[in-house]
Amino acid sequence: MRRLKYLILFIMLSTCQSLLSQDAIRIWDGIGSSKTRKVTLKPFLAENNVDSIGVIVCPGGSYCWLDEVDEGDSVAMWLQKNGINAFVLRYRTAGFGAYFWHYRWLFRGNQHPDMITDAQRALQWVREHAEEYHIDPDKVGMIGFSAGGHLVMSTACFNQTNFLTQSGITTNTNLRPDFVAPIYPVVTLTEDCVHKRSRRGLLGEVRNHNEKMCDSLSIERHIPENCPPVFLVNCVDDPVVDYHNSILLDEALTASNVNHRYIQFKTGGHGFGASSIEGSEECHAWKTEFLKWLSDIKMRKNSL
């Protein structure tokens, strides 16, 4: 059923692509290749962004596709309603063709480091346009779901590596997000609880079981000293990404003394994003808790 859901979503998005692109910004225009043409950043600007916060939203989809509804636009609209400027990042993924036909055995397609390069480019772009969007460049964070959670944590953990240089970009812009919120994230690429589809989507068929590559992108093994504050959420009954992924991340953040909050719900499953229908009444509380947490880490002036 979930595969059918994504197939229907893909068809709908393809049909509406021209409409969506009217509001989207092609962040690689003039400097990217044909592969980056579809990478976009879609702004959702709050009427009264009193706290000058900007959040880049990274939908999930196993690094194979993107859930741009519940984990993309819906999240951004919720942030927008709460006085926060949001930007939905449509980053590169393996795609349906690579998922179904495994053509990356022969052709590279999209795979690491394409995804984190797009994330860093989005972070650079938002900070360089901070004044235009009335954003404090020191209040730019990221929120990601499932594989998107792995992406935002990768951006946080590998912030001292400038992946943009591979695209010929030199910048003095800070590539470390000021906070990150991985929601029911993929974390490990090595342990028994690994989400295999996300691993293949990220690494491709050739590197899928390369121990060195898997180790290098297992987030729990690479928490840096300058890791930004982390807001972590998952559900024990998650049928897609084993909940032990978040436990591994929580333990690693705790061991490294990283300022973070971990909320583990008993019910809610996977893929609920900002939906008021998907998931459970229990897990829907993550949105209120996230806004409170922003106040706790001094991003918002007042608690809600």
Structure description:
The protein has 304 residues and is an alpha/beta fold. It is built from 10 helices and 8 strands. It has an 8-stranded mixed β-sheet, sandwiched between helices. α5 packs across α6. It is globular and about 50 Å long. The protein starts with a helix and ends in an 8-residue tail after the last helix. The model is unreliable at 1-22 (pLDDT under 50).
Secondary structure elements and pairings:
Elements: H1 2-15, H2 17-21, E1 25-26, E2 40-44, E3 54-58, H3 69-81, E4 85-90, H4 96-101, H5 114-128, E5 140-145, H6 147-157, E6 180-183, H7 196-207, H8 211-216, E7 230-235, H9 244-255, E8 260-265, H10 286-296
Quick tags:
single chain, 304 residues, alpha/beta, eight-stranded mixed β-sheet, 10 helices, 35% helix, 13% strand, globular, disordered N terminus
Largest sheet: 8 strands, mixed
Beta content comes to: 5-15%
The helix/strand order is HHEEEHEHHEHEHHEHEH
End-to-end separation: 37 Å
| Shape estimate | globular
User: Percent of residues in helical segments?
Assistant: 25-40%
If strands are numbered along the chain, what order do they take across the biggest sheet?
A: 1-2-4-3-5-6-7-8
Radius of gyration from the CA trace? 18 Å
* Alpha-beta content class: alpha/beta
Total count of strands: 8
Q: What oligomeric state best describes the polypeptide chains here?
A: single chain
Poorly predicted ranges: 1-22
Mean pLDDT: 92
